[in-house]
Amino acid sequence: MLNPIKKTIALPDGREITLETGKLAKQADGAVELRMGNTMLLATVVSAKEAGEGVDFMPLQVEYKEKYSSFGRFPGGFLKREGRASDYEILTARLVDRVLRPLFPDNYHADTFVNITLYSTDGEDMPDALAGLAASAAIAVSDIPFNGPISEVRVARVNGEFVIDPTFKQLEEADMELMVGATYDNIMMVEGEMKEVSETDLLNALKAAHDAIKVQCKAQIELAEAAGKTVKREYCHETNDEDLRKDVHDKCYDKAYAIAKTGSADKHWRADSFAAIVDEYLETIPEEEREEKEPMVRRYYHDVEKEAMRRCVLDEGIRLDGRKTTEIRPIWAEVDYIPGPHGSAVFTRGETQSLATVTLGTKLDEKIVDDVLNQGRERFLLHYNFPPFSTGEARPVRGVGRREIGHGNLAHRALKGMFPDDFPYVCRIVSDILESNGSSSMATVCAGTLALLDAGVKMKKPVSGIAMGLISDGEKYAILSDILGDEDHLGDMDFKVTGTKDGITATQMDIKCDGLSYEILENALNQAREGRLHILNIINETIPAPREDYKPNVPRIVTMLIPKELIGAVIGPGGKVIQGIQEESGAVVSIDEIEEGGYIEVAASNKESIDRALEMINAIVELPEEGKSYKGTVRSILDFGAFVEFMPNRDGLLHISEISWDRLPDMAASGLKEGDEVNVKLIEIDKKTGKYRLSMRALLPKPEGYVERERAPRGERAPRGERRERPERNDRGPRRDRGDRGDRGPRRENKE
Question: What's the CATH fold of domain 331-542?
Fold first, then answer.
């Protein structure tokens, strides 16, 4: 017997979310069906009973999948089946993962899989904002240990008001959009983009989101209670020796503190020095016990190293590389670093370095997006690459990972708002991280800005980015500007902020501590603003303004607008005309139907090709004018004249009488042949039929004394109502005698 348990959550605008368990996927450790309107998500979670051998981390995997059938669509491609995850699905899964992962117990190491699937949608509500709630609810109704629940909401500011989980339509009108993940007590994750908003606006948005999340967390607690899942499973995934832990701390802490206090900017020296301390300690353990105790020693030493670094910052204000808390690492930047790309720049901050390139292309280079709910084309692209050599690792490159997609997306959101409107080119930025020691995504934002300016892109404003950190013991705290990789790993916060001189354009925050106050967040944002402005000054010194003109190897683009009714004439049957224009001119021609008409882009690396293509297009879209002269081609010869193509796809009659001032007995006397080029004048456009009358003689001087031959007058037609009546058949006289035709025999039968 089914015994479903349902819980309803009301959003501030009156919409309702329902959570239901006990119907679907009952063999999973936890499963919840979430509905809002016509949107339905199913979230499941399964966790192994035991940890894998030697695993000392949380092996969590979160997957988000949208079924094409949820929106009544077929997948593209030959197989017509859902394939690998799209960037959008990966980014949604990452948002959920970043909130869930820190809340599993530190000593819980069992393989855990969270799957969220979209089964129904109507294209109005945004399902990605509900994925975190569904996943957390599934964990809540399981026996998996978890320090939650959590929820995620999207908050947008529309017409000055904050809207929780806006619709697609509402989001189009928003000037701020954030995804916020939190427990009942603490914000854990933030990611979003804004149109140059203030730090105060951002904080107010976080507060509005957290208020809505508290309601959703409370509903999950009640759902778990109703399902009888308040008691979680017992586990033992770690073997511990408290005496050994104390011994490691006593013998290694002072040494680790001394290394942290040296303030060396060389991360490899620091890593080797910290590693030497634990290696030295392991040598003191009897060889027969060493293999068994080594994993515990290294785990305990990691805690010692973390404590030493944090106390050094909190007690003495000394960071690992010797900087002050507000100090930014030395920066050097250079533009036009590589001659081949249309724009390039190197941006180096400390031991983090990004080499960014910009490529400008035509409409044919647009990215086609065909997700379940998101369809369209993208004209501004940013790709982020993180090769292993950037951190000195010796391992192969295995394609683009989720981290690279996430970091690239953050940099893309930071810059796209400052991309010029109605820019004729498709633009692609590629950021290759050549060195990495913290904040490579923010280096990408800065390098991307420099490369765009070097390419001659007239950005609205330059953008810079900085990563902020936090060290807190509950009483004292220190906010760190421009954090190192170790400060990110051992600290309590990674808060990335990008913006112009006038406001924030994008942000990403991950918090690993409890009880982060809005006061600390406000201080972090203000400190970040100072850092952003410092970096912006360096960007402006490097390249004060965009390049005046594009580089010689950039394709030039000319745009034009034509009436809608002429789009077909430019394209031609099966694309024959537009292909012919491209072949003859050497230019790339594309055409789109927009509200105003046909939007044409003509691109080529040289002016001659563009001019030739424009000439051919203008000839097609130009309307014939009476009295205007044209250069045409004879297409056919008839007894009474010739048909001449005087404009593309437009033929006119050149009557034999209009070829010469002399009277020609026949067309042979004219000397015209098919394929001849002739100069003609359009002397008449028939108002009823639209046919064209052409003349050659009108362009020739009239002979002296020439007298126009008079045409025989036509008889006057009688008015239609006064036509002569037909005589009666009786008046026609006798019928002719046809003679005797004899017997013709029987009529043939129709055999069909």
Answer: Ribosomal Protein S5; domain 2 (3.30.230)
Report the C-alpha gap between 142 and 229 in whole angstroms.
6
Q: Enumerate the CATH 2.40.50.140 domain ranges in the chain, comma separated.
A: 629-699
Q: Do the Cβ atoms of 372 and 118 come closer than 8 Å?
A: yes
What is the distance between the alpha carbons of residues 21 and 32, in angstroms, rounded to a whole number?
A: 5
**Maximal CA-CA distance, the chain:** 142
At which residue do the structure tokens 């599993």 appear? 104
Express each pLDDT in 361-404 by its tens digit. 988 899 998 899 888 899 999 999 999 999 989 999 888 899 99
CA-CA distance, 618 to 104, in Å (whole number)?
Answer: 67
CATH topology of domain 629-699: OB fold (Dihydrolipoamide Acetyltransferase, E2P) (2.40.50)
The yes-or-no verdict on residue 471 having pLDDT over 60 is: yes
Kindly report the pTM of this predicted structure. Answer: 0.82
- Considering the domain 556-621 in this protein, what is its CATH number? 3.30.1370.10
- What's the confidence (pLDDT) of residue 11? 93
Q: Which two tokens stand for residue 455?
A: 């390419």
Secondary structure class of 27 (helix, strand, coil): coil
Structure tokens at 746: 């029987």
| DSSP bridge pairs for 556 | 604
Q: Concatenate the DSSP letters of all residues of 305-350 into one string.
A: HHHHHHHHHHHH---TTS--TTPPPPEEEEES--SSSSEEEEEEET
Q: What is the Cα–Cα distance from 174 to 172, expressed in whole angstroms?
A: 6
Pairing of strands 380-385, 343-349: unpaired
**Which residue from 351, 329, 328, 542 is spatially nearest to 451, judged by alpha carbons?**
542
CA distances from 47 to 27, 61, 201 (A): 12, 10, 40
pLDDT tens for 690-725 read: 888 999 988 888 887 777 666 555 555 545 544 445
Taking a C-beta distance cutoff of 8 angstroms, is the pair 471, 491 a contact? Answer: yes
d(C-alpha 490, C-alpha 484), whole Å: 10
> Which CATH code, of 1.10.3210, 1.10.10, 1.10.287, 2.10.25, is assigned to 242-316?
1.10.10
- Burial of residue 566 (CB within 10 Å: 0-12, 13-18, 19+) is middle
Superfamily in which the 5-227 domain is placed by CATH: GHMP Kinase, N-terminal domain (3.30.230.70)
Can you tell me whether residue 194 is helix, strand or coil?
A: strand
With left for phi above 0 and alpha for psi between -120 and 50, is residue 255 left, alpha or beta?
alpha
**Residues 361 and 557: beta-carbon distance below 8 Å:** no
**Looking at residue 1, what is its pLDDT?**
63
Strand boundaries in 617-669, DSSP class E: 629-638, 641-647, 650-655
